[in-house]
Amino acid sequence: MEEDELDYDDVKLVAEVNEDLTQLLKYKVYRRRWFLLLVTCILNSSNAMLWLSFAPVADQTAKYFDLSLDQVNWLSLIFMVVAIPVGFGTTWMLDTLGLRTSLILSSWLNMTGSILRFLSILDNIPVGLRHYPLLMVGQTLCALAQPLVIFSPTKLAAVWFPENQRATANMIASMSNPLGILFANIFSPMIVGSKEKIPELLGIYTIPAAIVCLLATMGIRSRVPPTPPSSSALASSSEPFLAGVKLLVRNKPYMILLTCFGAGVGIFTSFSTLLQQILCVKGYSNDLAGLCGALFVVFGILGAFILGLYVDRTKKFIEVTKISFCLAALASIAFAVVSQMRNQGIAVAVVSSLFGMFGFAIYPISMELAVECSYPIGEATSTGKITISAQIQGIVFIMLFQLLTKQLADDPRYICALSWRVPTLVMAAFCSAGACLFVIFFHTEYKRLKEEAVATRSQAVAQNNEIDEEAEPELLQA
Fold first, then answer.
1. CA distances from 68 to 59, 127, 335 (A)
2. Are the CB atoms for 69 and 97 separated by under 8 Å?
3. What is the H or E stretch that residue 4 is in?
4. Distance between CA atoms of 427 and 416, rounded to whole angstroms?
5. pLDDT tens across 426-446, in order?
6. With contact defined as beta carbons under 8 Å apart, do 318 and 379 qualify?
């Protein structure tokens, strides 16, 4: 028998869980949960690859379609713009219609968008939709699919996975998105050696979108498992959508998490977007910038994996999040310093790796923490609002940091003639302020874990009483 101790301020509950007790309380897990996790991961990665497929080869894309770099940038920015208004409807869909509807719809939007992107290279289509207009329509459909899949990890973990696997499942599903970003940064330059390879790029990225659409449509049969994996799964989304939104606004710990964590994700988005421009002014090559971006993602996934497993065993969501946030803030300060030095490529790479390791590690754990402090409000509603906050703050930060740059040359088109000293310092200041506010003011009880522990104990006591009542007549007869 394995014993987990849970501390909730003044309340201490001990939940004794084993396979026999799980069967006794009629909670059950199904192997198909791993298939749903696989579908979510592939869909998340595919969508991220479609999102940033053009960014690493922006110059070749502009040449092939005869576009400006601003037009190419909008192929990526459309995802952030669409996510803000669509996100509200997406959270309602996930918590009301369920995971099956959301994943299947997302997979079809993702596949249809990727096909339209490929069709944009053909000449025998209507003139009004030829090339860039049809390409943008395809990107927009893929952008519509993004909130449906990036909001789903916490819902999937809550509905299909037991309490001791939730954080790990959420971590795996969430980190598949930056894994797709990493694939795009690696494969797009490998595929596109010249502008004539753009059609090949569009065709290759359509394949995983089509495969995951088939898997989702044919393989996902139900919105919830026949038997819930935990007591909290029974109460998932028990609050009506609008009532849940109102409760979130009045939930002080949740609003602190929404503000601070949303700012953190916004800073990470800005870092990924502006990294090459920050480094090139000090003479660092695009190869080094690409390497730093890759290390940022790889070490981020590694950190999230390690801490996800740790949190699943210890349930120390708050402690891990606060420590990681502080270390990420220190890494942002270090980056602001070393990025303004010349001939420090190793130091820049190391700092980028540490920034990713501690920064990305916060993401899945904070999403679980959002569910814990807002339970029984639907998982998609609580985590979706945080993601929307992050998207809004990301756009604001990118615009602000660009405004704070200082022109060093007469030609404004030469991006390597911009000084990023002030923006990087402001970035570090925002990250540090968010960490301080979170560490000082964020306190909450684990409402979902507490409810599960109470339900487990209550049902165990009730079952023991029933056994005693059945045994008493036999003892009297003996």
1. 9, 20, 31
2. no
3. strand 2-8
4. 19
5. 999 999 999 999 999 999 888
6. no
